[in-house]
Predict the structure of (2Fe-2S)-binding protein.
Amino acid sequence: MPEITLHVNGLEHRLDVPDRMLLTDALRQRLGLTGTHVGCEHGVCGACTILLDDQPVRACLTLAVQADGHRIRTVESVAPSEEELHPVQQAMRDCHGLQCGFCTPGIVMSLLALHEQEEPPGPEEIDETLSGHLCRCTGYRNITEAAHRALGCAGHAGPADAAGHEHEGAGR
C-alpha cells in the first residue's frame, strides 16, 4: 500500500491506502470527515464535491492516491467558527435552501469555489454550477435563490412570499 500525504482543511495527514481507495472513503473512513457525502458513486449527483487545490471535484471519482500532496477542503472547513456561518451557508439557511441536507455539503463546496473567484460570477455561471447537483427534496428554487444571494448577483431582491412581500433579512 502506498503512503500518501493529504493536506485536508489545513492539516497534514499521512495515510497508507490501497491503490484503488476512493478519496471519499479516505476522507470519511480514515479521517472521520463525514460531511462529504456519498450519493450516486458515479459523479452525477454532486453530493461528494470537495475542493482540490481550490477547484471543485467529485471525490467519488477521485482516487486517494491522486490527491497525494494536494490541498483538500471539505465542508467541515467552511464556517469561520462554531458560532458563525460562511455567507454561502448563511444564504442557504436564510433562503431555506435545504431540506434533508444530504446534497447541501456538495452544493456549498461548489458555491464556495465561485465565491472565492477573483471575478464575481454571473447568474448563468451560478445556474450552470448548480446544474451539476441533484437534490431529491426541493424544486431548486430556494437553492438557486440562496446561491444568487450569497454570490451577490445583480437584481437579486430576496425571497418573497406569495403576496410579493420580502422576508425579513432578505435582499441587500
Residues 104-115 form the longest helix (12 residues). The CA atoms of residues 28 and 34 lie 5 Å apart.
